[in-house]
Amino acid sequence: MIIIEKTYNKSVKFACAKNAHTWTPLPLRHLPQRYVRIKMKNILIPLLLIYGTNASAITIEGNSKYKTQVKKCLKLLSIKARTEYRLVKKHIGVIYQSDKSGMNAWENPPRYLMSDRTAFYSITWCASTIAHDAYHSYLYQKYKPSNSKKTPYDKWGGFKAEKEAIKYQEKVMKKIGSSNHEINYLKKLDGTHGDYNKDGKLDSTDYKKRNW
Ligand SMILES: [Ca+2]
C-alpha cells in the first residue's frame, strides 16, 4: 500500500490510501503506522516525467519497418542515456526516412533526415547518430542570431561543430553499449569525413555525394 501525504496547513494532514480499486482520502491519524508515507513530490515528479515523455514524443515518418527501428533506438536512448535523450527530444521534432542522412535544424520542428543505411546498420549506431544530429540542432539554436535569420552553417555544421558532435556521440555510444567496432570507427573520424570533394568546406555539393 502507498500512502500519499499532504499537509494543508500546520495542523491538518490528509492522506490517500491506495487500495485495489480506488483512492480514498483518509485523515492520517486513522492510518496504521505500518503504512509507508511518501511525500507528494516523490509520486508526482516520476508521473510528470512519464507524461512529459509522451507529450513531447518525436514524430517518425517512414515505413513501418523504419518506424519500428527508430522507436527501438529512442527507447534505448531514453533508458541508457537519459540526459542526452532530453536533448534529443528538445532538438529533434521529426525523424524522417530519407535517401541521405542530414539535419534540417532550421525547420520547425527540426527534422533529422536519416537514411536506411544509417538506421539499419544497428540499433546502437542508429541511436548514436540521432544524438549526434540532435547536437547539431542544439548548436543551431545556441548560435541563432536574434534577427531571426538562419544560423551560419559554420556555427552548427562546420568542422568544429562536427568534431563536437562526434565527441557527444562517443559519450552516448559508451552509455548505450555500442560495440568496440562502432566506437573505434567513430574515434577515427576527425570531423572532415563529410567533405567529400576535399575542398576544405562542407556544403550542398558534399551532401549530394553522401552515401549515408
Ligand atoms: Ca567540400
Tally the structural domains.
2
Question: What's the overall average pLDDT, rounded?
Answer: 82
Sheet-strand content, in percent, reads 15-25%
Succession of helices and strands = EEEEHEHHEEEHHHHHH
Small molecules held by this entry: calcium ion
Number of strands: 8
Model regions low in confidence, pLDDT < 50 over at least 5 residues: 1-16, 19-24, 51-55
Tell me the strand order in the biggest sheet: 3-2-1-4
- The helix-and-strand class reads alpha/beta
Helix content: 40-55%
- What value does the Rg take, in angstroms? 23 Å
How many DSSP helices? Answer: 9
Major sheet: 4 strands, mixed
Shape descriptor reads globular
Keywords for this entry:
four-stranded mixed sheet; disordered N terminus; binds calcium ion; alpha/beta; 212 residues; single chain; 50% helix
Structural summary, described in words:
With about 210 residues, the protein is α/β, with parallel strands linked by helices. It folds into 2 domains: about 1-50, no CATH class; about 60-210, no CATH class. The chain has 9 helices and 8 strands. The protein has helices spanning about 40-55, 65-80, 80-90, 115-120, 125-140, 155, 160-175, 180-190, 205-210, and strands at about 1-5, 15-20, 25, 35-40, 60, 95-100, 100-105, 110-115. The strands form 2 sheets. Strands 3-2-1-4 form a 4-stranded mixed beta sheet. The protein is globular. The N and C termini lie far apart (about 55 Å). The structure holds calcium ion. Calcium ion binds next to helix 9.
